[in-house]
Design brief:
The protein is α/β, with parallel strands linked by helices. The protein has two domains: about 160 residues, TPP-binding domain (Rossmann fold, 3-Layer(aba) Sandwich); about 80 residues, SIR2/SIRT2 'Small Domain', CATH 3.30.1600. About 35% of the residues lie in helices and about 15% in strands. It is built from ten helices and nine strands. The protein has a six-stranded parallel beta sheet with strand order 3-2-1-7-8-9, with helices on both faces. A three-stranded antiparallel beta sheet has the order 5-4-6. Helix 7 links the parallel strand 2 and strand 3. Helix 1 packs across helix 10 and helix 6 runs parallel beside helix 10. The mean pLDDT is about 95.
């Protein structure tokens, strides 16, 4: 029998939200799995299941590999990122509603899918960039992502200078954008409540941002245990969509 979520924990979660005025949400790939987007490290995630490229997905998603083999990179990018039809899910919608109510000050995401914005969230800090933007590696001219999708995995080139176009995402071997890091640090430091969801909290430096939270209301929602569970006020090892939806119903 499937284990249910304890009602008293949902009530505690809702009460924390009621008492908070500056909530920050920090999320990872698990936020979007209910939209049908594969995560990376779970048993059925991209890193464990994709074997058709003769090299690991981690290798393909590196700057060095992109520079050396853009044709393979773009086949992979098209198959697993651009050619994926996904809509915002319950978690995205709840967070957008909390922002509209003036409770949520920011969403900090490690995802690159743009679903938070699609759900209506306005203040979204994208630590790893977004597949919604592509630009020329030489002249920085933007290329419409719809045009990149239309190429169906072929390498796009800039119409202005002929340079290779790349997605505006952080690849392995590249630092996180400092502006996004600074903004995330400021938001977490100023928060009176931190909700962490859909992330294993093992990837640094992103996971290290949680150490800047000085409040006493931290809620972690993740299928598996995280290194920060012992520091949280509440921990749910359940569906993030179920937890967030039930919390909103309890408000």
């Amino acid at each position: 029998m499937k284990r249910g979520i304890a009602v008293n924990k949902i009530e505690q979660f809702a009460d924390m939200v009621r008492r908070s005025e500056r909530i920050v949400f920090f999320g990872g790939a698990g936020v979007s799995t209910e939209s049908g987007i594969k995560d990376y490290r779970s048993p059925d995630g991209i890193y464990q299941t994709v074997k058709a490229y003769d090299v690991s997905p981690e290798t393909i998603l590196s700057r060095e590999f992109f520079n050396a083999h853009p044709e393979v990179f773009y086949r992979f990018h098209y198959e697993y990122f651009l050619n994926v039809t996904a809509a915002e899910n319950r978690t995205h919608k709840v967070l957008a509603e909390l922002e509209r109510q003036g409770k949520l000050s920011a969403v900090i995401t490690q995802n690159i899918d743009g679903l938070h914005q699609a759900a209506g969230s306005e203040h979204v800090i994208e630590l790893h960039g977004t597949v919604s933007l592509h630009y020329c590696t030489q002249c920085r001219e933007l290329m419409d992502t719809a045009d990149v999708k239309a190429l169906r995995g072929a390498v796009p080139h800039c119409a202005e200078c002929g340079g290779i176009v790349r997605p505006d995402v952080v690849l392995y071997g590249e630092p996180l954008p400092q502006a996004a890091i600074n903004e995330a640090l400021d938001e977490i430091a100023a928060a009176d409540m931190l909700i962490v969801g859909g992330t294993s909290l093992v990837v640094y430096p992103a996971a290290g941002l949680l150490r800047y939270f000085g409040g006493d209301r931290m809620v972690i929602i993740n299928r598996d245990e995280t290194p920060f569970d012992t520091q949280a006020s509440l921990v749910f090892h359940d569906s993030i969509g179920d937890v967030m939806e039930r919390m909103m119903q309890a408000l």
